[in-house]
Automatic annotation (TrEMBL):
Record organism: Brevibacillus reuszeri
Cellular component aspect of the GO annotation: membrane
GO molecular function, one term: hexosyltransferase activity
The protein's name in its UniProt record: Glycosyl transferase
Domain Glycosyl transferase family: 217-349
Highest taxon above the source species: Bacteria
């Protein structure tokens, strides 16, 4: 008899957490050892009202109160101590009554920390306990991800493992360094070179810059565009605005008012991002864990701009420390790095550092580990 897996995630705080769950799920369902694999929206199941409140607060903080959000994040240990147990107590009964008792999972996986304490509490109460696995989707970890009832931590890098052991006294036997799970298609796409991707997408075979702010089109993408179009040497610029209609229209208006000699392509939401990242010579984006893992899988140099408070700032610090990305703080620094990275040897330097961090087959390795537990 195969194993039964439940993957808990949240999509209201960006799409990365759900994409990580989907990456593992897609591998699990293709394996003979899997009887059931199901993705669950944790708060949507336990408390839809709390989900909407959390989403409203998160988006409001990002829009109007970024410094305040950063201060909250800097005090995550205090907030974790205050909120984890009450949340766990309040949500666990709802999860047990609505899902866990019915599905009887062998393994429960969390790619978002919100419901982890509730899952840990449920594990203690159920007559048939499950193996609890946490998979943080960033290159850092915080207090909300840590609980004595967690059986396995699957983390992105050895530095995260060290932090768990030294700051939270987690036993090394509980930690697996397997990477951030990304869709399996990225490991396949990594075998194609950039020239092939450009040809397949109908792009010119010239130096290409991809600009994207995630599914929501976050970050000051218009500023980035204004910097790029000022470049004297020809560029091929691809901007993907995701589901941000306002940004898409704003960029279209900008290009009409200020025509340039560069080839500029503005697109909306693109489900097959691996093609565009694979074709790009440089990827300008915000440092979400999934976005960075995808870019490194495809060996596309990362130019980070406008990291959001909290996890993204920490991801940025990690990647800069590993020399696996570069941060631009203004338009002039963007232009300076673009000029520098026109030189293939300069791009090769950062790609060499990315090799030390990239794990394109993380989802496959995580699924294999889960099946053999």
């Amino acid at each position: 008899m195969g194993k039964r897996f439940l993957l808990f995630t949240e999509e209201w705080a960006g799409s990365g957490h759900r994409m990580a769950a989907e990456a593992v799920h897609d591998v699990l369902v293709a394996q003979e050892g899997t009887e059931l694999s199901r993705i669950v929206g944790g708060l949507n199941t336990a408390s839809p009202a709390l989900r909407e409140l959390s989403r409203f607060f998160y988006l409001s903080m990002l829009r109007y109160g970024k410094p305040f959000w950063q201060r909250i994040y800097d005090q995550e240990h205090l907030w974790g101590t205050m909120l984890k147990e009450p949340l766990g107590w309040w949500l666990s009964q709802r999860l047990m009554n609505t899902l866990l008792q019915e599905e009887k999972p062998d393994v429960v996986i969390a790619t978002h920390a919100y419901c982890l304490s509730a899952l840990a509490r449920s594990k203690q109460k159920l007559a048939r306990p499950f193996h609890l696995v946490s998979i943080p989707t960033d290159y850092q970890i915080n207090h909300f991800w840590v609980h004595p009832q967690i059986d396995t931590y699957v983390v992105a890098h050895e530095r995260v493992a060290d932090h768990l052991m030294h700051s939270y006294q987690v036993d090394a036997k509980k930690i697996q360094v397997l990477g951030i799970p990304i869709r399996s298609v990225f490991s396949v796409a990594a075998k194609m070179d950039k020239r092939t991707w450009k040809r397949q997408l109908g792009l010119d075979e010239q130096f290409t810059v991809l600009v994207c702010g995630g599914e929501g089109g976050y970050g000051k993408i218009t500023e980035v565009m204004k910097a790029l179009v000022k470049e004297m040497e020809p560029l091929q610029i691809i901007v993907i605005t995701g589901k941000n209609e306002k940004l898409y229209n704003e960029l279209q208006d900008l290009l009409q008012k200020y025509p340039c000699s560069h080839r500029v392509i503005v697109k909306k939401f693109e489900p097959q991002m691996w093609q565009w990242i694979g074709a790009a010579d440089v990827y300008i984006t915000k440092p979400g864990g999934i976005s960075c893992a995808e870019a490194m899988a495809l060996r596309t140099p990362l130019l980070l701009y406008q990291p959001l408070p909290g996890q993204e700032k920490n991801n940025c610090s990690f990647l800069l420390n590993q020399k696996a990305a570069v941060l631009a703080t203004d338009q002039e620094e963007i232009r300076s790095m673009i000029r520098q990275w026109r030189n293939q040897k300069q791009r090769d330097k950062i790609m060499k550092q990315m090799e030390l961090v990239r794990r394109p087959e993380a989802a496959q390795q995580i699924a294999a580990y889960l099946l053999q537990m």
